[in-house]
Amino acid sequence: MAVIHLTLADEAATLSFAGVLAACAQPGMLVLLEGPLAAGKTTFARGFLRALGHVGHVKSPTFTVVESYDLPRLSVHHFDLYRINDPDELHYLGFDDFLAGDALCLIEWPSRAAHALPLATWAIHWQIGAGETRKISLECPDENLHKTLYVALKKFFISAW
Ligand SMILES: Nc1ncnc2c1ncn2[C@@H]1O[C@H](COP(=O)(O)OP(=O)(O)OP(=O)(O)O)[C@@H](O)[C@H]1O
Ligand SMILES: [Mg+2]
After folding, report:
1. 34 lines ligand 1 (CB under 6 A)
2. Ligand 1 pocket, residue 67 CB under 6 Å
3. Ligand 1 pocket mutation, candidates 11, 17, 67, 157, criterion most atoms within 8 A of CB
């Protein structure tokens, strides 16, 4: 599997990184955001949604589980599954229907639903580094998409490569 490793120096870098991925966003994609509390998953989601045209606040779905956005190019469901303890809760939420729809799904704490998830377009693993740095690895099983992203990210993060 093709994996890209990157160091994001600060919050601004995370927002730019999200913007590069948003430029490749398509309906139906599945993006997994895995990492510890305060890693930057919701910050990434904010950059991603803003790059797709969302104006204003991005609420963390910690309590609501999902926040949905109808944006000019596509719709996005942003999940935070941290509080999901039981597969039945996903069932009541209609999780499978969300995944089967046309919207792009961004999922924080996907490990809570590991059994219910198809292969992701991107799985992003976050690690907290020194100060504001965040180390990420980005798995992208689609080879063509991987090549496109690699070129785009290299342009943006050339100094961090
Ligand atoms: N490089 C960075 N990228 C993203 N956030 C950063 C970075 N450096 C510092 N931060 C700070 O870390 C915090 C990240 O919070 P955020 O809500 O995005 O985390 P999260 O991974 O969604 O956590 P949770 O699992 O609780 O939902 C913010 O306060 C942000 O300002
Ligand atoms: Mg979060």
Report:
1. no
2. no
3. 11
Within 8 A by CB and 6+ apart from 137, the residues are 3, 4, 5, 6, 124, 125
In Å, how far are 32, 58, 84, 129, 149 from 39, measured between CA atoms? 13, 16, 19, 9, 22
Give tens-digit pLDDT for 14-30: 999 999 999 999 999 99
Low-confidence stretches of the chain (pLDDT beneath 70): 158-161
What is the whole-number distance in angstroms between the Cα of residue 132 and the centre of ligand 1?
A: 9
61 CA to centre of ligand 2 in angstroms:
7
Residue 122, both tokens: 């991107």
- Give, for 6, the enclosing helix (H) or strand (E): strand 3-8
Query: Please, are residues 121 and 140 in contact by the beta-carbon 8 Å criterion?
Result: yes
- Closest residue CA from atom 18 of ligand 1: 40
Q: The pTM is what?
A: 0.96
* Sequence ranges of the domains in the chain: 3-160
CATH for the stretch 3-160: 3.40.50.300
